[in-house]
């Protein structure tokens, strides 16, 4: 009974966070710290810092992985699942409803949809500004970011994204292996290493088996699961970086139009919770609510397997200087990938006229200098897009 009470408490707290956590991954981590560390005291500052560091090391949605980790430390694996459901479900439902309206009433060409696409330009530009200060602060990492930008712009494919990340990891391994930080750290996570090893094995089995099974069977649903699983498994840097991966997977296949894609990305900024719930919108546009649920499960599954699979081994990884160097290289490459995504498909599909750029500039100033919350930017962008439609 005590276990059920703990799970119910996790569900209540995480659902409240899922309904109120606007602002993207960095903001989510702030909300989590306030709730889990300061108010609930479910963990101390050191344990929370260790968990955040691990989520930054892994590919996938950082804030979701931290939420899962908090749930695991509070209530075991079921606690992690409960925490994930509470934090994610509110935005999943809202985005699936939005997708249903989009397809039912054929509103893809509406002015406010165009406004949401312009919002996407502003949100990603702001994300690049904030992340570049931490991920590419010196000239070496700026060069890595520049090379990643050039590579992803000139050779646009899923394999390019993966190749850039691997090359950046190798460069970081070579040039940052002697980088000094704040010393050794330790943490304790309540998961058995045998269970974690099984999770890691399953992660890699699915990563390599799904593409092969997709080719062998020609199954549409296997192809959908493969596309979303691979996007969730190979993205470093959070929800903004998943944009080019998903765009290159879905739009060329004819599963979704570029206009529908960017409209959904803009709408995702208006809801609280993780940016990876964008998959719920995409899956619903493609195949109704069933598609939305399958796409959501597929894109978040790698995050589950990775966080559960690495918690007990984190001390070994994070205290290895060479591993830390590789991660520094990858983080710098993320900036280049983001800038590439900002140009295409976001900018090229959204800023079509001078008035579009004017609206983008207004929204950017509201977000960066007036520091208005993201939902205000989204509402203003939608309204501005409607006004542009009448001009």
Describe the overall structure:
- There is one protein chain.
- The protein contains 16 helices and no strands.
- It starts with a helix and ends with a helix.
- The protein has one domain (2-390).
- The chain has helices spanning 2-20, 25-39, 45-57, 62-105, 111-135, 139-154, 158-175, 193-217, 220-234, 239-250, 258-268, 278-310, 314-318, 321-350, 354-368, 374-390.
- InterPro entries: Chr_Tranpt_l_chain, Chromate_transpt.
- Keywords: Cell membrane, Membrane, Transmembrane, Transmembrane helix.
- Pfam families: Chromate_transp (PF02417).
List the helices and strands and how they pair.
Blueprint: H1 2-20, H2 25-39, H3 45-57, H4 62-105, H5 111-135, H6 139-154, H7 158-175, H8 193-217, H9 220-234, H10 239-250, H11 258-268, H12 278-310, H13 314-318, H14 321-350, H15 354-368, H16 374-390
Helix pairs in contact: 1-4, 2-4, 3-4, 4-11, 4-12, 5-11, 5-14, 5-15, 5-16, 6-7, 6-14, 7-14, 8-9, 8-12, 9-10, 9-12, 10-14, 11-12, 15-16
List keywords for this structure.
80% helix, 391 residues, single chain, mainly alpha, globular
**Cα-based radius of gyration, to the nearest Å:** 20 Å
Distance between the termini: 62 Å
Q: How does the helix and strand content classify structurally?
A: mainly alpha
Total DSSP E strands: 0
Shape: globular
Total discrete domains? 1
β-strand amount: under 5%
Low-confidence stretches: none
Mean pLDDT: 85
> Largest sheet at a glance?
none
Protein name: Chromate transport protein
Organism: Jeotgalicoccus saudimassiliensis
Family: Belongs to the chromate ion transporter (CHR) (TC 2.A.51) family.
GO molecular function, one term: chromate transmembrane transporter activity
